[in-house]
Amino acid sequence: MKTYIALIRGINVGGKVMKMAELRAALENLGWMNVETYIQSGNVIFQSMEGMGLEEKMDQCIQNTFGYSVDLQIFLLEDYVRIIHQRPEHGDDKFWHVTFLKGELKREGWEEVCSVKGPNEEVYLKEGAIFLYCPDGYGITQIHTNFIEKKLGVKGTTRNWKTSTKLKELAGLK
């Protein structure tokens, strides 16, 4: 049995309402075990003996249960931890955000991403993620998920550092 972390993008905003209790029940009906959600923004920890096709199964399950498709990413716990451990070790944790990337990105767009960073912001491209330090607030940065997707030609979903580390803890790692 392997542990996975799923990140669902864009739910409980813009009309895509998803109750976490209903999502847990639907995923348990797939045979997934120890399904747990964290807050209402699409964070799921679960265990499964399956390893292939989990994203497609989860998306189909969500379509069947809630009537719409979503962008999502599922990580083997070890891969998720490897990604978040790449974060630079400075600054106040509350100002860090991580955008998990899905697919091959267009490297030529990276300079444009960096060119719009605010005077107090720092941005780092690591394997599978972009780490953004924004002490003036995520709400005012120009380096948000939609901008990253447009410039790098890759899907992504962003979480603040508290959520990113809490998911690791809920999966049983400190």
TrEMBL record:
Top-level taxon: Bacteria
Pfam families in the record: DUF1697
InterPro entries in the record: DUF1697
SUPFAM superfamilies for the chain: SP0830-like (SSF160379)
Membrane-spanning parts: none
PANTHER family assigned: BLL4334 PROTEIN (PTHR36439), DUF1697 DOMAIN-CONTAINING PROTEIN (PTHR36439:SF1)
Protein name stated in the entry: DUF1697 domain-containing protein
Organism per entry: Leadbetterella byssophila (strain DSM 17132 / JCM 16389 / KACC 11308 / NBRC 106382 / 4M15)
